[in-house]
Q: What sequence folds into this?
């Protein structure tokens, strides 16, 4: 039987034989080295400290500078990074083996001690006080030990098969302890990692310049000499820069332009499904209509997912019915439990015990996609006799309402791709998860299921449990999923070697320029 | 004159203090705080204890008046504090952002002056003629265009359709003067249109008033040439309200800077302030507002000095 | 032209009976072409706003998923927006918010600013000094940023947006009125009225206020144009009225995203904003030329 442990062993043993995503298209005989790549990103990275950086752009640049302990392959499974192999001798133990001769950009050695230093730093309350936010990702960790110069032993508090997945992102970025000591709180502006690029210039809201690290372990990468990141918050301006040749890659293309751009064939429009999933979230506290289960369930039948797909997303992406996205090993494309049925929805409203007309306030930020979706939802709800009052707020106002548990309904609900669904389902569904607490959601059966999927040892077993979780989540209807969104990037034809990752982070070391 | 300047400088201090208090209170009244924004950006689980610890570190758990005095005392020892969101010193961030805004605003201001004074004078001096109509209509049309409309039109045609200039970005003039000019022309023109139109209308109105004054009729009756009449007698007096308007419009220029910097992705002070407000970055906003108030106070001072030069009657030493 | 243009210091209040002045002003006004054009524009837009339910062919919030972003047709004269709603109808109803908020905010600003200016100008002294410092501070902050912050504190939406803009505009009117008060406070006839025992409020109302009214009217008209710009800028940032309420500014903001695919979406509300501001500015200019040729922009 193919248990997860056997699978992981097999992967670990054949680490060097695992197909490298970057050359999946067949490596051409001579890759031209050199050149500068300019990318239009939609926000400024802000910090390159792996334990502090928060937004997508910060994570992308930080990963380019530091590299990660582990990676995710094209099938969504763990792959080696700075760690060349790993073992899972028992439920609560992981042994990581680092590659040899790893060096930081400041010249010091990347060894097991450095890894321990970084993991300790994540969990250090002092880091938290200064803005460190990654402790929650390795909450199950009990202790980290240096076994020898290249081996690290991680011991968990409880069984958790998917524990290593956060190390494929910034949590697994390893910075030079010497640099941490030297710069302290300013490390974010003077990072020193073992990644393919080093930071040479940072001008907030203007540009970030990365230069090739000649000592990078994964030879012959990186091919590029320089990468320039330009934050351009307005969608249409980003696109304009791509078309005028100001940038070579543009992130997050405006959805309404996708079909037109594809038809024009001027640029390569790359789509990756399963970048994020959307849901409408209800607050189950007594003060709000969401306290009634039938009220919530009515919306599973009342929302017009087709309309949402067309109107909010311009037909891009796909309709979603749970929190497990395409691209995940646990995704089931045939799972479509709901079809629009207004009669059923109205009956549920009648049975809900709430008196019509029901009025519900919905603070919502000015995000164009969500504003459109919110108005479709408003129209659907109106057919049920439910009046949804959309209140314009800024991002902080929305966040404040959400985090203080005072958001009657979350029209902005979404979660971005994570290599393992547990990374966000735990936060949403487990009664101790922060979002569950914000929404007063607590179901002991769900807690049991979450623990079960963590303790499960094989992928097949986890798939079964995840299906039960999805069923229960939809029945409880605290979160009503409605879409899976894709990530779109526009590339100049001269950009080669680009593999579109599901987390939308560009692996600059794989890219080279042609012509 | 020196005494006057010192007197005005001292009078500026309560304004600076008051503005900082107003902004301090307004910021604290906004829902949410910077710690919230830091946590939410990451979409990861951060416990309430960690969030509390962060708040303590940034002094956000202290009573308001203590927070304000802490800021004030740090300020007096020369420390503008650190941006909570990006953790860099606020002064450093502010310093890098002043140049783009100054470059664009000053260019717009100069262009506006160069356009509006001659046009205003010409239209006022030739009231009712086709020149007057043209100038008046033009300035009315220009003043009716909100900055975001002008900016949108410029981007659409100049950057997108004709591809003459870049749609975004900023390069420092010390790095590459040509590209610097290319990236700042469109934002500057966006500001110039409204500013020039408004000042033209003011110039015209004030010139018309002055030209009707008794002493102008006297000068004409004395047989002085029209040019002499305009340039010598009328100009000095008509410039007074114009100078005031140009000084007053500084605030409007800043609002315009906010919009143009957003549309053209220019890393200036206007965007820094708005981003700071939206992300509740208290120290950053306080620093920007302080700088802004200093600039306004300085501008008002310069206007008053100009008044003193142009109109001896209004000197108040 | 106007008699007081000869000697600006002569108070107009005692020069001619009110009715005769009014009639004379109206005649001058009718001959001032620009002002008439401005007045026409303004009246058309106010009427549009008032008669919206009668004029609009569709309900402004009627979503139609099958007709998204359609160009102008016979059925939809200005096309449809990104949710299939009729742009013309939303434009007409949008006049209600855009005009309503702007006009209301100026009225509120006048209602608060004028008495403020009267009182502080008349009383003078330390109170006046202190208030002027506060006013200086408020005016030092850029209008858009201040309006944005206040609206965020109060909560966004139509009403709070109006209050926010009013707060931004109040210092303008306070300053104008205060300036007028200061310039006539020491005139003989005011002193005379005072010494005869006329109560302060009557002095303010009957002698000082009439002088202050003219510049207030002029500035009020211009301020409405300014308020329209601020309101549409706030909506442009996305923090204006509550969806699905249409406002011209939010329509421009959303329309910007479809600039190349559906340019009519942006053009319609942008033109309306432009015409509204133009109208009020023309009106204000006309009023200024007629009522207040000696405009003091200082104080």
A:
């Amino acid at each position: 039987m193919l248990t997860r442990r056997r699978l992981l062993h097999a992967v670990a043993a054949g680490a060097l034989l695992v197909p490298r995503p970057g050359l999946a298209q067949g490596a051409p005989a001579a890759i031209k080295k050199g050149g500068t790549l300019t990318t239009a990103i939609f926000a400024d990275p802000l910090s390159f400290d792996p334990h502090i950086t928060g937004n997508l752009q910060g994570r992308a640049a930080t990963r380019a500078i530091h590299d990660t302990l582990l990676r995710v392959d094209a099938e969504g499974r763990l792959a080696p990074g700075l760690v060349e192999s790993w073992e899972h001798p028992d439920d609560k133990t992981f042994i990581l083996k680092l590659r040899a001769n790893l060096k930081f950009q400041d010249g010091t050695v990347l060894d097991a001690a450095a890894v321990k230093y970084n993991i300790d730093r994540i969990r250090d309350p002092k880091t938290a006080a200064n803005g460190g936010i990654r402790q929650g990702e390795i909450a199950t960790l009990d202790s980290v030990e240096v076994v020898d110069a290249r081996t690290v032993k991680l011991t968990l508090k409880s069984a958790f098969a998917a524990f290593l997945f956060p190390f494929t992102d910034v949590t697994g970025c390893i910075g030079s302890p010497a640099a941490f000591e030297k710069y302290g709180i300013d490390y974010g502006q003077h990072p020193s990692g073992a990644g393919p690029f080093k930071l040479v210039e940072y001008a907030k809201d203007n540009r970030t310049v990365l230069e090739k690290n000649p000592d990078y372990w994964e030879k012959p990468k990186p091919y590029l000499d320089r990468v320039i990141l330009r934050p351009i918050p307005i969608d249409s301006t980003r696109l304009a820069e791509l078309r005028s040749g100001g940038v070579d890659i543009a992130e997050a293309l405006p959805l309404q332009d996708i079909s037109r751009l594809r038809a024009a064939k001027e640029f390569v429009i790359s789509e990756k499904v399963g970048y994020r999933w959307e849901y409408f979230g209800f607050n189950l506290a007594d003060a709000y209509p969401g306290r009634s289960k039938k009220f919530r369930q009515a919306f599973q039948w009342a929302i017009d997912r087709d309309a949402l797909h067309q109107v909010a997303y311009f037909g891009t992406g796909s309709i979603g019915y749970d929190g497990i996205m395409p691209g995940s090993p646990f995704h089931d494309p045939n799972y479509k439990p709901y079809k629009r049925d207004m009669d059923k929805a109205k009956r549920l409203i009648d049975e809900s015990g709430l008196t019509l007309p029901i009025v519900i306030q919905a603070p919502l930020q000015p995000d164009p996609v969500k504003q459109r979706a919110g108005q479709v939802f408003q129209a659907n709800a109106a057919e049920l006799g439910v009046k949804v009052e959309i209140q314009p707020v800024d991002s902080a106002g929305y966040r404040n309402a959400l985090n203080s548990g005072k958001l009657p309904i979350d029209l902005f609900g979404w979660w971005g791709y994570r290599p393992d669904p547990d990374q966000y389902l735990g936060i949403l569904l487990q009664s101790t998860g922060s979002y569950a607490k914000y929404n007063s959601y607590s179901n002991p059966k769900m807690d049991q299921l979450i623990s079960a999927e963590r303790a499960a040892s094989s992928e097949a077993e986890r798939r079964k449990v995840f299906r039960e979780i999805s069923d229960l989540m939809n029945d409880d209807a605290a979160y009503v999923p409605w879409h899976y969104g894709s990530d779109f990037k526009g590339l100049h034809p001269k950009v080669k070697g680009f593999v579109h990752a599901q987390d939308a982070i560009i692996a600059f070391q794989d890219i080279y320029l042609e012509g | 004159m020196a005494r006057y300047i010192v007197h005005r400088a001292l009078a500026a201090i309560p304004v600076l203090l008051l503005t900082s208090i107003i902004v301090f209170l307004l910021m604290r009244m906004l829902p949410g705080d910077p710690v919230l924004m830091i946590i939410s950006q990451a979409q990861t689980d951060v416990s309430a204890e960690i969030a509390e610890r962060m708040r303590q570190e940034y002094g956000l758990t202290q009573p308001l008046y203590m927070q304000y005095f802490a800021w004030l005392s740090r300020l007096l020892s020369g420390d503008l504090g650190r941006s909570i969101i990006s953790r860099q010193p606020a002064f450093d961030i502010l310093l890098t952002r002043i140049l783009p805004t100054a470059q664009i605003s000053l260019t717009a201001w100069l262009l506006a002056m160069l356009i509006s004074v001659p046009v205003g004078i010409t239209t006022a001096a030739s009231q009712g003629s086709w020149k007057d109509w043209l100038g008046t209509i033009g300035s009315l049309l220009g003043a009716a265009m909100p900055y975001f409309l002008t900016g949108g039109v410029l981007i659409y045609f100049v950057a997108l359709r004709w591809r003459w200039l870049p749609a975004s970005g900023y390069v420092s003039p010390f790095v590459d003067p040509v590209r610097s000019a290319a990236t700042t022309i469109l934002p500057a023109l966006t500001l110039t249109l409204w500013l020039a139109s408004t000042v033209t209308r003011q110039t015209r109105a004030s010139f018309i008033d002055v030209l009707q004054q008794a002493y102008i009729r006297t000068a004409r009756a004395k047989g002085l040439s029209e040019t002499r009449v305009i340039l010598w007698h009328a100009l000095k007096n008509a410039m007074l309200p114009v100078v005031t308007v140009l000084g007053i419009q500084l605030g409007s220029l800043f609002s315009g800077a906010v919009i143009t910097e957003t549309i053209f992705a220019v890393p200036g002070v206007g965007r820094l302030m708005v981003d700071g407000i939206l992300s509740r970055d208290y120290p950053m906003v306080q620093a920007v507002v302080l700088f802004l108030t200093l600039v306004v106070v300085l501008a008002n001072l310069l206007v008053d000095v100009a008044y003193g030069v142009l109109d001896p009657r209004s000197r108040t030493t | 032209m106007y008699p007081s243009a000869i000697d600006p210091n002569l108070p107009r209040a005692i020069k001619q009976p009110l009715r005769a002045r009014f009639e004379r002003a109206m005649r001058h006004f009718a001959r001032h072409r620009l002002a008439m054009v401005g007045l026409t524009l303004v009246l058309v837009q106010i009427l549009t706003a008032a008669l919206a339910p009668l004029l609009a062919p569709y309900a402004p919030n009627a979503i139609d998923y099958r007709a998204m972003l359609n160009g102008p047709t016979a059925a939809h004269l200005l096309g449809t927006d990104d949710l299939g709603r009729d742009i013309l109808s939303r434009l007409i109803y949008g006049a209600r918010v855009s005009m309503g908020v702007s006009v209301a905010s100026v009225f509120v600003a006048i209602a608060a600013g004028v008495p403020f200016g009267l009182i502080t100008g008349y009383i003078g002294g330390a109170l006046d000094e202190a208030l002027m410092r506060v006013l200086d501070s408020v005016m030092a902050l850029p209008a858009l940023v201040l309006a944005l912050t206040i609206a965020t504190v109060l909560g966004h939406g139509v009403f709070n947006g109006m209050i926010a803009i009013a707060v931004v505009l109040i210092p303008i009117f306070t300053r104008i009125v205060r300036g007028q008060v200061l310039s006539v406070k020491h005139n003989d006839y005011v002193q005379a009225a005072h010494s005869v025992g006329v109560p302060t409020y009557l002095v303010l109302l009957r002698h000082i206020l009439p002088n202050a009214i003219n510049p207030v009217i002029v500035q009020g008209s211009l301020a409405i144009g300014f308020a329209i710009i601020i309101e549409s800028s706030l909506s442009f940032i996305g923090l204006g009225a509550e969806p699905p309420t249409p406002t011209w500014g939010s329509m421009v903001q959303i329309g910007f995203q479809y600039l190349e695919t559906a340019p009519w979406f942006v053009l319609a509300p942008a033109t309306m904003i432009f015409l509204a501001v133009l109208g009020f500015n023309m009106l204000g200019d006309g009023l200024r030329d007629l009522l207040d040729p000696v405009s003091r922009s200082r104080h």
